[in-house]
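Q: Here's a chain of 351 amino acids. Please give me its 3D structure as tokens.
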Amino acid sequence: MTGPEQPTGAGRRPGPGDRAGRVVDRVVTVGEGLAVFRSAPDEQLWRADRVTVGTGGAEANVAMTLAHLGVPVVWAGRVAADSLARRVTRELRAEGVGVRTVVDPDRPTGLLVKDVGADGRTAVSYHRAGSAGSALTVADVDALGLDLAPGTLVHVTGITGSLSTSAADAVRHLVGRARESGALVSFDVNHRPRLWGDRPAHEPHRALAAAADLVVASVDEVPFLVGTSFEVDPRAPGLEQAELAADALTGAGHEHVVVTAGSAGAAARHDGRRATVAAHEVRVVDTVGAGDAFVGGYLAGWSRRTDLAARLRLASLSGAAACRHAGDWEGAVDLDGVGADPLTGGDPVDR
């Protein structure tokens, strides 16, 4: 078996002449599925009588959002042989996601624990070191039998590569295979400082972004991709910050970008077109998973061949819906009561 590949095209950005016109018919995403432990929104974990067990993980959240928006999607990864892994895969399948796995008999399922503090804020802790998902390998990617033909969009995040050296190699290998096979690639930076620790993340993020057809980042994550010379005035309105950050990414050669600015909204650029969207206002219960729901909504809009503004509207609706529920994905699969119709609604959008 050959060693891990660098993403084909690393160091260059996809241009409109070779890939931009391709369509998205289905999505494949690879990552770690997590069991999520949480108490009730108004109860601290240390004194809770009951704990709810759910499913999480950025790629799994995106996959379930896409499935509920009618996009064929497969989630793949290395999973444990324990009951929590069985729950994670069962829940993914129950929500309409295709599942491909390699089973690790020796390592456990990773955990995400949500604990409500005395101030009402939710603290998230990870228990992923040594988990089955963190041990993903290049060989696993080949063994999963993924459809990487033209028409497939392969979605990856910066989270999986932060889990271990082998997982980082696996993601690079997957992206390289996708590009060689004619699939499109989307990359959500999704930087998690607790997972990276003291390890440098700039180069791994830049390498994946350079090989991606779509790059998604928050305003705070853009310096990972364009350097610390990029600065946004913190006094500027959030949407203005997103606009400037999106321009910085396109100026660095990325053709298709989405930049989020939290509760302010988001900006997108694609083949010279521009769009922004203000975030929908909802009663926030938990923001964990909102970014994944946003990405799932955007990818669904892209798959539907909608225009740039419509993709952002659907993404904004999906992200807002996710905030209404204490789970990582449960709110995102029900858009009822959030804004108007996601494809024709009248949300404020500047083109």
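Q: Can you summarize the key feature?
A: DSSP finds eleven helices and 13 strands in the chain.
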